[in-house]
Specification:
heterodimer; A: about 425 residues; alpha/beta; Rossmann fold; 7-stranded mixed sheet; 5-stranded parallel sheet; 14 strands; about 40% helix; globular; B: about 325 residues; mainly alpha; ABC transporter involved in vitamin B12 uptake, BtuC; 15 helices; 4 strands; about 75% helix
């Protein structure tokens, strides 16, 4: 046998050995015994809501790694399948059809935000599958779908529940008049409608009630118009760009209102907090999680956020550096699903939905119980006041004291002070 | 004899193909993707009637489409109108809008006309943002009937004697039929007196006017047809999406795509927009679930630059030049 032939035979034998070894190892590995459970979703990774979407995705990846390290769902590893919806509702129905029909995912969960949950609802209803939502407001009001559950701690009537605590917090000022302003967009208008109900329940006289176009760049004329009405308190429901513009306009023009804020989305994002810095002092706004000592009522949330912050740092991710706003909630909506599937013990959407309806869950956002429409049974929105912000350093927002909790009373870390006293 | 009617036979075959596709029960994703591509065939064909044949660049596609969408929503909100009624009324109103806007703006030319048409979408979006009856800025969810009827016949719900298994299959077929209808209209325009007149306007409007071509009348007719077809494309949108808000209905992406697709396919003939929209529409649908980001708009931009540079008459023009 020539040397070349010998070499070829030995190479072939080595190849056969490798192939046999590979076949044996894969055939007896746990992953070969059970296919992974696929969880599919669309997420805003580009477009207007990408700031939140990217943050949520990283939290979901942490959940996937956590559950897989504990043995997965019903003994099977979990795999996330996701596509960028570009913050465009038009892309959502097609993505969910692809997830269910081509990728053959076992479960679908929503992308981030009301407008991106809405177009996915009919797909979920059509397939009769459990559908977990992330920060949706009243998405199931029209459908009344029994397998929809969402994570936004705003109570059974989210529009009203969202601002309820804010009105409770400002009772200390004994206000008589209120001005209300909202972005002319879905979520913000819902918030303001709820705030109007709460204001009327409190007996406040509404002296100003207007919407502003979402693309408004200069808010100083609006603030001046509000000031002309001399309201005792000023409720604002705005999106990130508007929130930043309004904070700057308030700093420039000033106001005599004792409390300002309420439903300003975006002031919780690291980038905006650092950018606005001391301009935020005095704003009284909603939040869901802040690094105050009394937030320990959420078991595991602190560790989760530390893990997220470390992930962002070590992997050099271009996303929110702190992650307080969305990380616990994006983790929780998958955690609830995971707990329910493991408790039921099989992929049976009917049984899983019944279990979720009947159960009070404990997750990184505390105890969760759902109403028949899939909303939270109680509001858990917290009211914070920005205080003691000295400069634009981001790390100050990672420490207690810059966003003190004013309400609920059982976890309060400060007392509301008038807007101007903190300027 | 058959050769004489080959286009008409082709239309019937395409319609039959659309119907047969709905009967094989593919993955529903393919119906979603197919619907989006066929909708672009309809939109870009409509755009090409004024933009391609007449040379008037219309950036107001999103305005006409959004009008169709919101007319359909208003009709559903008002009395739960059926989809055929929505299409007819939306097409008629979008055509009327085309007539009105055309009368005001068609005296403008070039970039001034393009800017004027772009303003239509912005004005209409602002109007809808403040019209709470159709959801306003908040948007609106539409509950499609489980078993839609067409002229008293149940068309969806095969178990109940319907023709289609589900609503998505029906909408795919409907969009296919509308796209074929638009292509037939575009071809009729192209080879008729209207098309010849529009071509003359495109080459030299003053010369055409001197030769007795009724330029304003022809441009108005083209605007009405074009606007009406865009309105029709928009009317089916609420049933497909089931949730519509103004940024979705009046998205500038429609204007960009409706211009890019005929440019890439070829603007001088009816088949150009069809080729362009099938090609680009497919690339976009694949990009959404593979590259998965806004990069699909970048793809369109790059393709547009490449084709304008290498093949200014589009794919069809390039092939025709090679075969000469």
């Amino acid at each position: 046998m020539s040397r070349i032939l010998k070499f070829r035979v030995s190479t072939m034998l080595l190849g056969v050995l490798f192939a046999a070894a590979f076949t044996l190892t894969t055939a007896f590995s746990p992953s070969a015994q059970a296919k992974p459970i696929k969880v599919g979703f669309s997420m805003a990774l580009t477009g207007a809501l990408a700031g939140g979407g990217k943050q949520a995705l990283e939290a979901m990846k942490i959940w996937r790694d956590d559950i897989n390290s504990k043995g997965g769902m019903i003994g099977r590893q979990v795999e996330l399948v996701y596509y960028d919806d570009q913050t465009n509702p038009k892309n959502v129905p097609g993505i969910y059809a692809k997830l269910l029909d081509v990728d053959k995912v076992d479960f679908i969960v929503s992308g981030y935000g009301t407008n991106l949950i809405a177009p996915a609802m009919p797909v979920a209803i059509d397939r009769d599958v459990v559908f977990m939502g992330l920060f949706g407001m009243n998405n199931n009001k029209k459908w009344k779908y029994d397998k929809y559950f969402q994570i936004l701690p705003a109570g059974p009537d989210p529009a009203v529940g969202f601002s309820y605590n804010w009105f409770e917090a400002l009772k200390t000022f004994k206000p008589k008049t209120i001005a209300l302003l909202s972005a002319d967009a879905e979520f913000a208008r819902n918030l303001k409608e709820g705030a109007v109900k709460n204001a009327k329940n409190m007996g406040l006289k509404i002296v100003y009630n207007e919407n502003y176009p979402p693309k408004t760049a200069d808010f100083t004329p609006i603030v001046r118009a509000v000031n002309a009405k001399k309201p005792d308190v000023f409720y604002i429901a705005s999106y990130p760009n508007g929130s930043a513009g309004l904070v700057r306009a308030l700093a420039e023009v000033g106001t005599k209102a004792k409390a300002v804020g309420g439903g300003m989305v975006g002031l919780q994002f690291s980038g905006l907090m650092a950018g606005l810095g001391p301009n935020l002092n005095g704003i009284l706004n909603y939040d869901f999680y802040v690094p105050e000592p009394t937030m320990a009522l959420y078991p595991g949330a602190t560790e989760l956020i530390a893990k997220y912050q470390n992930k962002v740092k070590t992997e050099g991710l271009k996303t929110d550096a702190l992650g307080y706003y969305l990380v616990p909630w994006a983790y929780a909506y998958l955690d609830v699903l995971g707990q329910a599937v493991n408790a039921v013990g099989k992929i049976d959407h009917e049984a899983i939905a019944k279990y979720i309806h009947a159960t009070e869950f404990t997750s990184v956002v505390g105890k969760i119980k759902f109403t028949p429409l899939g909303e939270w049974s109680e509001t858990r929105t917290i009211v914070v006041q920005y205080q003691n912000i000295k400069n634009n350093d981001l790390q100050q927002f990672a420490r207690p004291g810059t966003r003190k909790i004013m309400y609920p009373l059982d976890i309060k870390t400060g007392t509301p002070q008038t807007y101007n006293s903190l300027r | 004899m058959l050769m004489r009617y080959r286009f008409e036979i082709g239309c019937v075959v395409a319609l039959l193909a659309c119907f047969l596709i709905t009967q094989v029960e593919l993955n529903r994703f393919y119906y979603f993707a197919g619907f989006a591509i066929l909708q672009y065939v309809l939109i870009s064909t409509a755009w090409n009637i004024l933009g391609g044949y007449g040379g008037y660049i219309n950036f107001g596609t999103a305005g006409f489409l959004g009008l169709g969408t919101y007319v359909a929503i208003a009709m559903i909100q008002f009395y739960g109108a059926g989809i055929i009624e929505q299409i007819i009324v939306a097409g008629a109103l979008a055509g009327l809008l085309g007539l009105g806007i055309g009368y005001i703006t068609l005296r403008l030319k070039g970039v001034y006309f393009a800017i004027a048409t772009l303003a239509i979408a912005i004005v209409l979006e602002t109007f809808v943002n403040n019209w709470d009856y159709v959801g306003g800025a908040a948007g609106v969810s539409i509950l499609p009937p489980r078993t839609p009827e067409l002229l008293g016949i149940t068309i969806v719900d095969r178990k109940g004697g319907g023709i289609f298994y589900n609503n998505k299959e029906f909408l795919f077929f409907l969009m296919g039929a509308l796209a074929i209808m638009s292509v037939w209209i575009a071809r009729t325009v192209e080879f008729g007196k209207l098309g010849r007149g529009l071509n003359a306007i495109k080459d030299n409007e003053e010369a055409a006017e001197c030769m007795g071509v009724p330029t304003l009348k022809l441009k108005l007719i083209a605007t009405v047809i074009s606007g009406s077809l865009m309105g029709v494309a928009g009317a089916v949108f609420p049933s497909y999406l089931t949730f519509v808000d103004p940024p979705t209905a009046f998205n500038l992406e429609f204007a960009v795509n409706s211009l890019a697709m005929p440019m890439i396919g070829g603007t001088f003939t009816w088949i150009g927009p069809v080729v362009g929209s099938i090609l680009l529409g497919t690339v976009q649908q694949v990009a959404i679930v593979t590259i998965s980001s806004e990069i699909n708009l970048l793809i369109i931009g790059l393709l547009l630059v490449i084709f304008v540079t290498i093949a200014p008459h589009g794919i069809v023009g390039w092939f025709m030049k090679k075969n000469k």
